[in-house]
Amino acid sequence: MPMGIMSEGSVSLYIHIPFCQSKCSYCDFNSYAGLESLIEPYVGALLAEMGLWRQPTHHMNLPTVFLGGGTPSLLPLAEVERLMTALRQRFRLAADVEVSCEANPGTVDRPYLQGLRSLGVNRLSLGVQSFHDDELATLGRIHTAAEAREAYDTARQAGFDNVNLDLIYGLPCQTMTAWQHTVREAMALRPDHLSLYALTVEEGTPLADDVARGRLPPPDADLAADMYLWAEDALAVAGYQHYEISNWALPDRQCRHNLAYWLNEPYLGLGAGAHSCFGGFRFANVKDPRRYIPLVEESAKDSGRPAEGLAPFLTGLHHIAFAEQMTAARAIAETVVLGLRLVEGLRLEEFRRRFGQELMSVYGAQVEELEALGLLERGDGCLRLTANGRLLGNEAFQRFLPD
Questions:
Q1: Residue of 372, 400, 399, 374 lying closest to 386 (CA atoms)
Q2: Three-state secondary structure call for residue 66
Q3: CATH of domain 338-397
Q4: In CA terms, which of 11, 33, 53, 260 is 20 to 30 Å from 277?
């Protein structure tokens, strides 16, 4: 996969949908249950925010669009149609644009998925997480294993030829046998893409409270590492290419949107709490959709005022919670850390082209230390994590971050 998958005239677009039927026990994402009444005005605010970015991005192609959440599949098809129509009117979508949408198995049926497909969504990501009902209950998921299989089959019947399944390992009380069953069930369905995430107990979640009070044991890190290694081998045998620490794909089915993040290419985030890295700035929207909606309206009212440059433009947007200009040192560090997430690694020639210097002149001591520890290796013009390094990625990444 090329290091510069996107041209300088491209920006990927993320659209955050913060609504959920219920909040999963492990989730600390910016999502809210019980706010479905806000869906219509929220989509209206998204359309207004799109309008704000029409001029700054008018010269740029959008190679990828990602509807994430939350649960984007809670949007009625009429609201998805509003979004897709506005996207085509206000941005220049690439001819082969990848349009991904996350969905929970318990929220979709065949007419809905056929509608999504007909509106231009061409990649579906199903949050399956497990093929064991007891594990799904522990996670607070609203679907069963049978409903997950049914949602996958329905997606295929609806015309989706690019489907991802999310799975989680390292759950409290999860056994290796149970994990192997989940992975085998997933492989038997033959999805185009699989994302396997280790459970993280996030502070402030119901799961963290259960662990703290002894109702559930904490995840077993050693067992989770064994689960990862087993899945790595099993997926390789099944023909899946391991291209990023937590992601596997059939040939030519890598998630192009997420590759833009890992290649540290520009992206624009719309919606409550969405983050952006664009034009040399990093910025984020306010998190609460109840604040985001009126603040975007204020931004739209003031949008007629001319702004020379991105900094004053961002200053004039009321819904921006923070913005900071990226320093050269930060851009270099993030490019290295994100690039090392790719199994191929960081292409040294591309680093030289992008920053005008050799990576070893910036991070020679760190690279040599991590090579000696067996966490990094160089070869084929790339710097990459070793197999052991992928298990201990944070140990490597922290060496490259600015103080």
A1: 374
A2: strand
A3: 1.10.10
A4: 33
Residue 252 has, within 13 A of its CA and on its CB side, a CA count of 1
pTM over 0.85: yes
Rounded to 5, what percent of the chain is helix, strand, coil?
45, 20, 35
Domain boundaries, the chain: 12-262, 338-397
- Given a contact cutoff of 8 angstroms between Cβ atoms, the answer to whether 171 and 132 are in contact is no
Q: Which residues contact 294 (CB under 8 A, 6 or more apart)?
A: none
CATH superfamily of 12-262: Aldolase class I (3.20.20.70)
> Along the 403 residues of the chain, how does pLDDT read in single tens digits?
333 333 458 999 999 999 998 878 888 788 888 999 999 999 999 999 999 999 899 899 999 999 999 999 999 999 999 999 999 999 999 999 999 999 999 889 999 999 999 999 999 999 999 999 999 999 989 999 999 999 999 999 999 999 999 999 999 999 999 999 999 999 999 999 999 999 988 888 888 888 899 999 998 999 999 999 999 999 999 999 999 999 999 999 999 999 999 999 999 999 999 999 999 999 999 999 999 999 999 999 987 655 678 998 999 999 999 999 999 999 999 999 999 999 999 999 999 999 999 999 999 999 999 999 999 999 999 999 999 999 999 999 999 988 7
Amino acid identity at 232: E
